[in-house]
Automatic annotation (TrEMBL):
Keywords: Repeat, TPR repeat. InterPro entries: CellSynth/LPSAsmb/PSIAsmb, TPR-like_helical_dom_sf, TPR_rpt. The keyword Repeat applies. It comes from the Bacteria. This is TPR repeat-containing protein. TPR repeats lie at residues 81-114, 115-148, 149-182, 183-216.
């Protein structure tokens, strides 16, 4: 009770002094010291916590700083699946492949149905020539989400890269049912049939590729090579990756 009264009297007294002072020179509000505003902003950033700061840094492309903040979040046991997923992505962006693999696996451990973690992990494993593991991850994506088109395209590329040409052909033929005018699919089939030594279906697919895209120089070149194969011209076409160009 006394404390409250003292506080009120103190405020009243200050008000009185201000009124008296104002009559002489006016009440002046002191300006904050230089750098005070910057200090407040910095404190607010810190108050966000390591997770929010890490996410903010990652969005700005400051991967190494973001990684340190995410690791602090893990150290103080406040990390969630978003932290692990973005940490994996930051590791990948910095070329820290094995760390990225470990973090994507951690995401999947927390949420076995996390499609993008399975997808990104699959692409990385294929790039690392870990074919069986990479294909397993891409197939897992399609098991969770059969309509995940990127995973289907990437699975075809993965089969081809891993020398499973028959499997790649089946994937590309399946995709053509919904995309009959896809020139890249026809071209890839032409290359695959060429690799199997099946000249006629290879030429047929390359002709379809050119019908869909008359400007496809790769298809023109390979078709010309195959049509004069009897003259001993060596073909040099390579499949074109469709969706496996970057991680999500």
């Amino acid at each position: 009770m006394n404390t409250k009264r003292f506080g009120m009297l103190g405020i009243s007294g200050l008000f009185f002094l201000c009124v008296v002072s104002y009559s002489l020179q006016g009440c002046k509000k002191e300006s904050p010291p230089a750098g005070a505003e910057k200090s407040v902003i910095s404190d607010r950033e810190v108050q966000k916590g390591h997770k929010e700061l890490g996410l903010s840094l990652y969005e700005k492309g400051k991967n190494l700083e973001a990684i340190e903040e995410f690791k602090k979040t893990i150290a103080d046991n406040t990390a969630d699946i978003e932290v692990y997923y973005n940490l994996a992505s930051a590791y990948y962006d910095e070329g820290m492949i094995h760390d990225a693999i470990d973090m994507y696996k951690k995401v999947i451990e927390i949420d076995p149905n996390h499609t993008e973690a399975h997808y990104n992990l699959g692409l990385i494993l294929i790039d690392e020539r870990l074919c069986e593991e990479g294909i397993h991850e891409l197939k897992k994506v399609l098991e969770i989400d059969p309509k995940h088109e990127d995973a289907t395209y990437s699975l075809g590329d993965a089969y081809y890269d891993c020398k499973k040409i028959d499997d790649a052909i089946e994937i590309w033929k399946t995709l053509l049912k919904d995309n009959p005018e896809d020139s890249i699919l026809h071209y890839n089939l032409g290359v695959a049939y060429r690799d199997k030594g099946q000249l006629n279906p290879a030429i047929a697919e390359l002709e379809k590729a050119l019908k869909a895209d008359p400007k496809d120089r790769d298809a023109k070149k390979l078709l010309k090579q195959l049509t004069i194969k009897k003259k001993g011209v060596k073909s040099s076409g390579q499949v074109k990756n469709l969706k496996k160009t970057e991680k999500k």
